[in-house]
Amino acid sequence: MAKTEQEKRDLKAEKEYNKKHRSQYVSKPSDIVFSVLNYLVFGVFTLACIFPFYYLFINTISDNNLVLRGQINFFPKGLHLGNYLALLNVNDLSSAFIVSVSRTLIGTALMVGASALVAYLVTKQEMWGRKFWYRFLIITMYFNAGIIPIFLNMQMLGLTNSFWVYIIPGIVAPYNIILVKTYIESIPAELEESAAMDGASHMTIFVKIIWPLSKPILATIAIFGAVGHWNSFTDSLIYMTSKPELYTLQHRLYIYLNQASNLKSLMQSGGSVSEAAVQSAMSGKIIKYTISMVTVIPILLVYPFMQKYFEKGIMLGAVKG
Q1: Are residues 66 and 77 in contact, defined by beta-carbon separation less than 8 angstroms?
Q2: d(CA 286, CA 18)
Q3: Is the pLDDT of residue 321 over 60?
Q4: pLDDT tens digits, residue range 28-39?
Q5: Which residue, of 61, 165, 283, 320, is most buried by count of CB atoms within 10 Å of its CB?
Q6: Tens digits of per-residue pLDDT, 78-87?
Q7: How far apart are CA 113 and CA 301, in angstroms?
Q8: Using CA atoms, how far apart are residues 85 and 61, in angstroms rounded to an integer?
Q9: 91 exposure class (CB count in 10 Å sphere: 0-12, 13-18, 19+)
């Protein structure tokens, strides 16, 4: 079918427009130089971030004698997985791993649930003392009693030397509540109003409407909580004064680091150190590397799957549209 005169004129106009504006899409030499430098800088920065993890990993799977002599720098040699299997024989390491996993799962779940519920409540105008409680919550972000008063408080509450000292203090997280509150306020109010007209209670609206729609921001604060719980060791160091079986994995790593450092200082100062102690320090170095990888791997595996929720949630939760 022949083209009409109007179609021919439109096609000719389109060609002229593309020809006129084609220069806008041609990269200038300055743009090319900028792009090359940009990729180069960020490529070097990425390598600088990745290399420490890579270095640890290749040292844990390489021949231990070569590792102790410092001969493993860029490529693994004498590949084996014996160090990871040997961790099963390290005293109390399995219990520390269970404690870290348990506090991460339980603490993160309770924190996310509490943050979502409190954030939803403070968005309701009919909540009694809403402004007071929200401001009171925000104030806690700026004031801290210090380590000693906090320790005495936990002691009076009977939480020291208890697993729940890892969980209870972190359930209410003001910063996360602010993020979730801002996100919830961006959800169209008509959804709640229509559900309320159908007879739905606040709890029904929260469970069936607010919670499903808030998954991006909830996934974001879940990452914050999980990383915080997994990497934390100061609470284990301070509160577990007589319960070594409740030490976290990070606390165990801290102990191994201190033991190796103290022995190294004694050797350098000319102190009397037995051959068995020297061998212990050498094996301790391998253990440090391996435990460090074990503590890092879970977060490295989880984060890529949460990346899309993290980016979406942090942007929508931080800026109210």
Answers
A1: yes
A2: 63
A3: no
A4: 777 788 888 888
A5: 165
A6: 777 777 777 7
A7: 23
A8: 11
A9: exposed
206 contacts 113 by C-beta, under 8 angstroms: no
Structure tokens at 286: 């391998």
The closest of 252, 251, 273 to 262, measured between CA atoms, is: 273
CB 309 within 8 A of CB 219: yes
Closest CA to 222 of 266, 173, 271: 173
CB 302 within 8 A of CB 226: yes
Measured between alpha carbons, how far apart are the two ends of the chain, in Å?
A: 50
- Contact at 8 Å (CB) between 236 and 167? no
> In this structure, what token pair is assigned to residue 259?
């033991």
208 SS3 class: helix
Residue with tokens 């219990």: 95
CA distances from 115 to 102, 142, 312 (A): 20, 18, 18
Condensed to tens digits (0 to 9), the pLDDT of residues 195-210 reads 888 787 888 888 888 8
Alpha helices in 140-248 (DSSP H): 147-156, 174-185, 189-197, 202-205, 211-213, 215-231, 234-239
Torsional class of 240: left (φ above 0), alpha (ψ -120 to 50), beta (otherwise): beta
Q: Is residue 320 pLDDT above 50, yes or no?
A: no
Question: What's the mean per-residue pLDDT of the chain?
Answer: 78
Question: Rounded mean pLDDT of 163-168?
Answer: 91
Closest residue by Cα to residue 99 from 255, 241, 232: 232
Question: Hey, is 146 helix, strand or coil?
Answer: coil
**Residue 186 carries which side chain, given as an amino acid letter?**
S
Contact 185, 320 (CB under 8 A): yes
Distances (CA, A) of 132 to 126, 136, 137: 13, 6, 9
Classify residue 287 as exposed, middle or buried by CB count within 10 Å of its CB (0-12, 13-18, 19+). buried
What residue type is assigned to position 97 of the chain?
F
